[in-house]
Design goal:
Low-confidence stretches of chain A: none
Radius of gyration of chain A: 21 Å
Radius of gyration of chain B: 19 Å
Low-confidence stretches of chain B: none
Helix content of chain A: 40-55%
Structural class of chain B: alpha/beta
Strand order of the largest sheet of chain A: 3-2-4-5-7-6-13
Strand content of chain B: 5-15%
Strand order of the largest sheet of chain B: 2-1-3-4-6-5-7-8
Oligomer: heterodimer
Shape of chain B: globular
Chain lengths: ~400, ~300
């Protein structure tokens, strides 16, 4: 039986990790993720968990300790964002290369310089190619649900990849919402304990992290890519099983009013809710618009995105990060590649928004929808990359 | 004290690795594996030892072993220790597992010092062994914080104006002791009985323990591979590398050197100090000699022998 409690995004992440009965947490506080570490410290201090909690001296060591613990066979959780995630960068690759199912909550935040503590997706986009499964959450409920599902997916013996659960800094990390949580026993039954095939075991000595020269390295990397494909397949099993348990349905994507839409917006994270609200209002005015939210960002659900948008005549892709010097923002590049590789050429434009916590307003979203509708009619993009909400 | 006949014949670090002839690392690792207490996990950071002992699909390790990045052996050991602690609490395992990190001086004195400091402060139960060959040897003999004054490396070359590294070597053991740990020691493979005793003591300490092992490098120090143990011994007999230990607040000189050999005996058989014997660098040679004497006196004082 589920119950409703009020939690912020950070608290929900800590609570979900607690219910997942993690063996080891190693973390270093950084705004706006700090509260995850604080809450978990309280669980430890009050004896509410059997977890070994390491209050490390840096994010680099946080990820290193997680790697050590995961190699020993433990279920491992950590949290970070922004500069902390950047400091972990080197170790993110080692975690995925060693095929360690570490789950990490990331309260997305802008990167220095100039220093800024508010939300955008620059941090995780900077680690986009590090071999981690990645989901983006829209609200506190999703943070809770995804942390639990993440352990199930990443620990699957056919997958064995680390997973990042992204949620917008402050917007979600600090916003309190009523969320439905599962009973401890329900989570326990869903996850059981981590099953481990290869670990640091004195009874069965193994070598991990061996040197692979040009004769083997490529094969190891290729296997990681295969694991991503497995993650893609297993993902749907995990969300279906979780739906049976919680009644909350996740899929690769959340589709909103797309069946007959002419123009659509695709974006990640907390902005999606507002975009849907605006879409609803415009529908009331007879404008055929829709919204697509990918939960899963890595591996990227190309097939599902194409299917969801098969009748769209124009698309606006919202990116809350810049890929400096690239033709488009990170999400838009994926969308472009997805469409082009299937020979589907429709007018797609990129909107860069919300860097460093800059708010995006309903009026601005309405402008984007209207531009997309205009673009659909004309059949041609006016401006490939648009910056919304910035003083030019 | 250990007698040779008491040591296990089994080799947990096997032959077939690709370390250089005369390298002190495999000698040190074999010694470590001879005095293990029980189930053990070994962590190694990037360096000669790792790249030469784990070339896929081969491995020289018969203990659970992991290579991690250059700078975080201590942090990874922290995580492994935490996992075993959690397993014990949950009743998943009941045996103690010892954790040993074996890292080079670059990953220790320089880039890894933060991770080491963090792990020592948190008092994780593990042994940190630094293979100190006094430079970044794996990347081609560059200076590190462990490189002694006057030594020529490719980034502190002996030029016409600057004869080798101008700075002194860091006091790594001193840094570790300042963290309030229970056990720290210096060692070198030439004094194997001394080394084995220190490894075992370090393992038996409940909490972090650190050993800095002088591991001569024929390539980087430029000497004949056959001379590794000879040089290891000369380092001690010239008082260049004092062998001592620190145990719960007390220092002890474990190898006494009442009648030292001249420092030159240690320096002159190595290419890295060759330039110091040119007449124009007499001042620098004197400085090295002065440093060796000062350091020896400092250690003697700590050990209550002065």
């Amino acid at each position: 039986m589920s119950k409703v409690i009020g939690l912020s995004g950070n608290e929900a992440a800590a609570y979900a990790a607690k219910q997942s009965k993690v063996d080891v947490v190693a973390a270093y506080p950084i705004t706006p993720q700090t509260i995850i570490v604080e809450r978990f410290s309280e669980y430890v201090a009050n004896g509410e968990v059997e977890t070994e909690f390491i209050c490390v001296e840096s994010e680099h060591s946080a990820m290193s300790a997680c790697i050590g613990a995961s190699l020993a066979g433990a279920r491992v959780f950590t949290a970070t964002c922004s500069q902390g995630l950047a400091l972990m960068h080197e170790m993110l690759y080692i975690a995925s290369g060693l095929r360690l199912p570490i789950v990490m909550a990331v309260a997305n935040r802008a990167l220095s310089a100039p220093i800024n503590i508010h939300c955008d997706h620059s941090d995780m986009m900077g680690s986009r190619d590090c071999g981690w499964i990645q989901v983006f959450c829209e609200n506190v409920q999703e943070v809770y649900d995804w942390i639990i599902q993440a352990f199930k997916l990443s620990e699957d013996l056919n997958v064995l990849l680390p997973m990042a659960v992204n949620f917008d800094g402050f917007t979600i990390s600090h916003a309190m919402e009523d969320i439905k949580v599962l009973e401890d026993e329900e989570v326990e039954a869903f996850l059981s304990t981590r099953k481990v095939k290869y670990k640091l075991d004195p009874n069965e000595p193994m070598t991990f992290g061996a040197l692979m020269l040009p004769d083997y390295y490529f094969e190891a990397k290729r296997q990681q890519e295969e694991a991503m494909k497995k993650a893609y397949e297993k993902y749907i099993d995990v969300v279906k099983e979780y739906e049976k348990l919680s009644g909350r349905a996740y899929n690769y994507l959340h589709e909103f009013m797309l069946e007959d839409a002419e123009a659509a917006i695709i974006c990640l994270g907390s902005t999606t809710g507002l975009v849907r609200q605006v879409a609803k209002k415009l529908r009331g005015e007879g404008k055929k618009v829709g919204v697509l939210k990918p939960w899963l960002f890595r591996p990227f659900p190309s097939k599902e995105v194409l299917k969801a948008l098969e009748n769209i005549k124009s698309l606006a892709v919202l990116d809350r990060a810049i890929s400096f010097g690239a033709p488009f923002g990170p999400l838009c590049s994926d969308i472009m590649a997805t469409f082009f590789s299937e020979g589907k050429i429709i007018p797609i434009f990129n909107v860069i928004y919300g860097l460093g916590g800059r708010e995006i307003t309903p009026k601005e979203i309405e402008e984007i929808f209207n531009l997309a509708l205009k673009t659909a009619k004309r059949g041609k993009v006016e401006e490939k990359v648009k910056f919304i909400g910035v003083r030019e | 004290m250990y007698a040779l006949k008491d040591l296990p014949k089994e080799e947990l670090f096997t032959s077939g690795h690709r370390l250089c002839a005369g390298c002190a690392h495999p000698i040190s690792v074999r010694m470590v594996t001879k005095v293990l207490r029980g189930p053990t996990v070994i962590v190694s950071t990037t360096g000669c030892l790792e790249v030469s002992s784990s070339i896929y699909p081969h491995t020289a390790w018969k203990v659970p072993w992991v290579h991690i990045a250059f700078e975080n052996g201590a942090a990874v050991a922290s995580g492994i220790e935490a996992a075993f602690k959690a397993f014990k609490r949950k009743g998943i395992i009941d045996k103690n597992v010892d954790i040993i990190a074996i890292c080079g001086d670059g990953g220790t004195y320089d880039i890894g010092i933060q991770a080491i400091s963090g792990a020592l402060e948190r008092k994780h139960d593990f042994v940190y062994i630094c293979h100190d060959n006094e430079a970044y040897m794996n990347t081609g003999i560059q200076r590190s914080g462990a490189t002694p004054k006057g030594a020529a490396t490719t980034t502190s070359p002996a030029g016409k104006k600057i004869p080798g590294k101008p700075e002194w070597k860091k006091d790594f053991i001193g840094i570790c002791i300042a963290h309030g740990i229970e056990y720290a020691a210096t060692a070198t493979p030439a004094y194997w009985g001394d080394y084995l005793m220190k490894i075992r003591k370090a393992i038996e300490v409940d909490g972090p323990a650190v050993i800095n092992v002088l591991t001569p490098c024929p390539l980087g120090w430029r000497y004949e591979p056959k001379d590794t143990i000879k040089i290891s011994r000369l380092a001690v007999l010239t008082r260049y590398f004092p062998l001592y230990e620190y145990e719960r607040g007390r220092y002890k000189l474990t190898i006494k050197v009442p009648k030292p050999l001249p420092v030159e005996e240690f320096l002159k058989i190595q290419g890295r100090f060759r330039h110091l014997f040119n007449p124009e660098f007499k001042k620098e040679l004197d400085e090295v000699k002065y440093y060796v004497e000062e350091n020896w006196n400092r250690i003697l004082k700590l050990c209550g022998e002065a």
